[in-house]
Amino acid sequence: MSVKASEQNSEWLTRKRLIDPKLKAAGWKIVPYSPGMSLSSLQNCAITEFETANGPADYALCVDGQILGIVEAKKLTLGPQSVLTQAERYCKGLTDSPFNYRGFQVPFLYSTNGEIIWHHDIRHELSRSHVIARFHTPEALIERLQKDADTSCQTLLQTPNDHPRLRPYQIEANEAIEKAIANHKQQMLIAMATGTGKTFTMVNEVYRLMKAGVAKRILFLVDRRALAAQAVLAFASFEPEPGLKFDKIYEVYSQRFQAGDFDEDEKFDPRVLPNSYLTNPTASHAFVYISTIQRMTINLFGRDAIFAAGDEELDEDATKLDIPIHAFDLVIADECHRGYTSSEDSIWRKTLDHFDAVKIGLTATPAAHTTAYFKDIVYRYEYERAVREGHLVDYDVVAVKSDVRVNGIFLKEGEQIAVVNPESGAQQLDLLEDERQFDSTKVEREITSPDSNKKILQEVKQWADAHEKRYGRFPKTLIFAVNDLSHTSHADQLVNIGRDVFERGDSFVQKITGRVDRPLQHIREFRNRPSPGIVVTVDLLTTGVDIPDLEGIVFLRPVKSRILFEQMLGRGTRKGYQFPDKSHFVVFDCFDGTLLEYFKTVTAITAEPPERETRTIAEIIDDIWSNRDRDYNIRRLVKRLQRIEKEMSGEGREQFAAYIPQGDMAKYANDLPQKLKTDFTGNMALLRDKTFQDLLVNYDRRKRTFWVAHDSVDEVSSSWLVRGSDGKEYKPQDYLTAFAEFVRTNPAQVEAIRILLNRPRDWSTKALTELEQKLAATPQRFTRDHLRKAHELHYHKALIDIISMVKHAANEQEPLYTAGERVQLAIAKMTAGTGFTLEQVQWLNRIEGHLVKNLTIDQDDFHTIPVFTLAGGWSRANRVFEGKLPHMIEQLNEAIAS
Q1: What is the tens place of the pLDDT at every residue in 661-716?
Q2: For residues 571 and 552, what is the distance between their CA atoms, to the nearest angstrom?
Q3: Sign of the alpha-carbon dihedral angle for 707, 709, 714, 716
């Protein structure tokens, strides 16, 4: 047989064995071409070897007597992408077609090798070819043909986006999405900082897309049922038109929820999507379906495909359905950064890839694997900008220096320890017979120091008490623990110690992890009620949980993933709800500031890949046998075997002794590469033995031990750091040095500084406002609160006023006053040697109280401030002082600034 004949035979086999079944599954009837055949009677047919002026097309897809698609097939070993050009050639050679798109006579083109299908909607020159999971059904092609996407997009772009609740940056995000869709982009990413309203932005966008006819069937995917519940409420409560809720205009469906998924006061009964909406989509449908990725994966691929999709509880009623690829024309993937392992990432991809739709990813933390899939970040709204524009709050840093967290635990001979059985929880006291060193990575995993945890929580309590004294409320605080393992739980230990340290009862310090009953209910209580005030978690609250009034985050868990770190940090960035005066939150870095220091060097789009899902040892052995990258896989196998050596117990060694001399896995691993070179087949016989492979996975492992170092004494201290808008953390002394430098070098740029240093008679409310605005806009963010805190820590004096700070920065000989002290001195200077009537003294007391709070006074204050207006305002006060009040105000302002 000639080479050409062999290739033709291979293509024929590919078509019969692989392509024909796929076309039939999509609803196409396979019909052979015959010369002169009439198309008018053909309905939903795939005509094989269809003749064109440029040669025979492998398949012509015919609906209602019209050729709507051309399919070009190639043998399995060829990549089909480049074959699309051949489909284009046949497309141009079609005669008697009612279509003409720049010379192309058919709207839809396909090329396939039976495994991979490439598709190109040729109608618009900006349309991109892409891979699809299945062939389109005849109904899908008819629907697409009848849809005028360009007109719909023009309608969308011309529709005002003026919802009163939209913020400017949310409008910018909508504009970016709509421009990308109008330019025929199929995949895009929206990166918006946690707490800036990604969901609200997308609910508004979905309404606009549906109203303009750009999209009608929308899938909103999340990875947790709690997020699905939040999204359902967001759609149901959105009022796109005055007096009309979203779900009264378009259908909103979801999966089934449990009673605990909603707050008790949230009276909402979500509608469950009928399966027919998934399996039989029609052009008349216009709806939003909110689903977890886990449920949709089961619907598409069955329950066996969901084994690696995280720890979310699976819906019992979810079953596999036959869902066509055009079931949705828009898919929104919320929190699409999720996928810390490649198995999770593949679940996202496989599910998203099934649908031939526009796909929009939403995330606060774009990563390399996220941008690789969604390709373009069409809009970005960073945390720093959100803080600068007043939509989020910034944070201060407390660096907690713990010898145990930095250097680990050193135990001396004779010290008492408790050995914990991780399986039963039984403890046995023992005395060390030799010294032992545990490095910091093993703390809370193999050993714990209760004294270290207690002293760290005491540092947190010291801050919380000061916060409560100042603001009149206990700061809600979230503590991230290392783990929540049975019997050796770091989270449990922190809860128990925290209850002792804070002395406010058991309900005040609680654990919320996947191991507690009804965690979503506990999260709502933490968000909405005064108690608990402190919650310990591991990772349940790292994403998708809205607790606006959170004011403290404690990192006792070492984190290396930027995605995870930023999500954890994002729990505190929202502005307060019950406490609108929340100006910032405080981050406790319990690793002496090294945690935050590490993430300074990590880029906004990290290059870190998701953790790889390890190939099974049987797969590696099969790769070696099949000579697939043999040398690399031999090295991988050796490392796996060396790991087994470290993990197996004595009984495990006895198990392996049945296969290798003395069960010595270390020697076997080291000798294996050379043995495979000298006798490949003979040594592979053992490796391919199924019972041996089973033992390589299920060997008896050494029992984990856990120590409690009761005699370990930690040295713990903390230092407050100021975080500038430049992302740097400053120690108090460094912060004050930078402030002094700014004051000394910028009088020419800041009029208020010149006034304080040289022209105190011009001091006014306008000058104070300018001073505070200019200082806050510096890279170091010299706000009044930050400066006051830095002075307090360095000079051990609280509540120093801003005037003293500026004067002292310019000249260290200038004294530091509180506002009360400064005002008392100014009034004493002005009133010295003067007698006052009782009513004048009363007015002076009012003026003094105002000055303590504001450090300036002017005539307008007497018209607007209640304490003045209630006493008669400017006219009364001026009469009381016999018309001399304007001069008194000038004297007071000058005295305040002197």
Answers
A1: 999 999 999 999 999 999 999 999 999 999 999 999 999 998 888 999 988 999 99
A2: 9
A3: positive
